[in-house]
Description:
Layout: H1 2-13, H2 17-32, H3 51-63, H4 67-74, H5 76-85, H6 92-100, H7 106-111, H8 119-126, H9 128-131, E1 135-136, H10 137-154, E2 159-162, H11 164-167, E3 172-173, E4 176-181, H12 191-201, E5 205-211, E6 232-241, E7 261-270, H13 276-284, H14 287-301, E8 303-305, E9 310-312, E10 317-318, H15 321-325, H16 331-341
Helix pairs in contact: 1-2, 5-6, 10-12, 13-16
This protein binds 2'-deoxyguanosine-5'-triphosphate (DGT) and magnesium ion.
2'-deoxyguanosine-5'-triphosphate is lined by residues 164-165, 170, 173-175, 177, 225-226, 228, 282-283, 285-287, 290, 307.
Amino acid sequence: MDVMEELAESSEFNESKGPCLAFRQAASVLKSLPSAVRCLGAIQGLPWLGEHTKAVMEEILTFGRSFKVEEIRCDERYQALKLFTSVFGVGPKTAEKWYRRGLRSLKEILTEPNIQLNRMQRAGFLYYSDISKAVSKAEAEALGCIIEETVHWIAPDAVLALTGGFRRGKEYGHDVDFLLTVPEMGKEEGLLLHVIDRLRDQGILLYCDHQGSTFDVSKLPSCRFEDMDHFQKCFLILRLEEGQVEGERGLQRDPGDSRGWRAVRVDLVAPPVDRYAFALLGWTGSKQFGRDLRTFARKERQMLLDNHALYDKTKRNYSYRRLLRRTSLPIWVWSMWSLGREM
Ligand code: DGT
Ligand code: MG
């Protein structure tokens, strides 16, 4: 499964979109199996496993390793691009540019006089050792309490939900994602900026990139999954203190680190209340589940789904009530409906 992720990552660095998606789909199918695959017969009939994937699996089952993956791991370009893209704010294009300049380590980037880092990348380097470490569930819950207190201090009727991997039950994640809204339409607009101010006043805001809403009903639907949604959001780095985290292990940090705090990446998204169910579904993920759900909507139901709405192509309107009335109600609509009711 990790091998498939590595193959997907390598394809992404080579801008091979098709193989990248195929390996990601294979990784997600293998992840969903109840136990590890011990023979090729066990994967017969499973969807999304193409010839390429099966060949890699055969190699692993026969030799205990994949020569293709080993070759990739030793590749200088792959190693450099993987390292560079592990910095917050650095995407594959920037990483490739740095690699072509002959840079191979983070130290070389920081000491190269001709490299201009943007604000996000500067924060990425500054807090690199903290934010490249996984965030635990206990840390996510501690941040949830802080954000909840902050949001409710500003708007007592606000609704806050932990989303992303932690909502799916993951024990560790690379960041912590939250969705927040208020029952009254339009009131969510100023909320995020107030929350940011309050986090700054509390001395826990280490970095903030706020993006205003570009949500426009007339421009819906947007059907490419890669396009992020148009809701107001902010990408933050917050300071989490040791005493705030419950559980045996407390903060995730290096042995010997006696600071008593760590930096954590947090995303806050503030959709208007009438889009909350769609936003919650999209931000709960996983990315692959989101992609599959959109494909299902498009191909099987002639509908377009995104983080803002479900669009009925045959009726040319936004509706999911028609589907809700059907007796053969598909699970995906149920899940969206129940997620919407959660608030
Ligand atoms: P993590 O944080 O690495 O443990 O895993 P997630 O699942 O929390 O992933 P994250 O934080 O990158 O994104 C949170 C959710 O947002 C993800 O589960 C699905 C959604 N999402 C992420 N990237 C995209 C994207 O490019 N397009 C769309 N439409 N949704 C995305
Ligand atoms: Mg996340």
